[in-house]
Amino acid sequence: MIINGEEFQIRSWTLEDIPNLARHANNAKVSDNLRDGFPYPYSETNAEVFISAQLDAPWNFTIAINGEATGGIGLVVGADVHRFTAEIGYWLAEPYWGRGITSKAVHALTDYAFQHTDLVRIYATVFETNRVSMRVLEKNGFQLEGILRKNVIKKGITMSSYLYAKIKE
Hints:
The protein is an alpha+beta fold. It contains 5 helices and 8 strands. It has a single domain, classed as 3-Layer(aba) Sandwich (Aminopeptidase).
């Protein structure tokens, strides 16, 4: 699948993306806002293992700028009674922050998923310290559903996360 935005493209990962993924993901400021499954430091071996696992993943993509993998975005679709719900996750390389690219990518993938699947709800949880990501979701019509108090530990710090969701209209 390919979604073309004005300044970016959402496309499947390829093995050719390994060096760019390793370079852009190896950033503590990126890692600080993601789950521990996203390691720091981030090596080419980490990139190779990740991309190899994504080659057949239907909803995990890179955000490419000028053809270069510069971030990631994807959905994890629920199972059983949650099969019409998906969790969205995303990150973008620091040199591209502040340009609205992440907001546009979230908008594009969310719209695509609602138009081409039976999903009725897409949600995200955001660390309490990540106000920028909260704003990305709010700009895209996600609503704050609740605060999950002291439910995550990142780098030894216990903090709350904010649960946002968007419902298909």
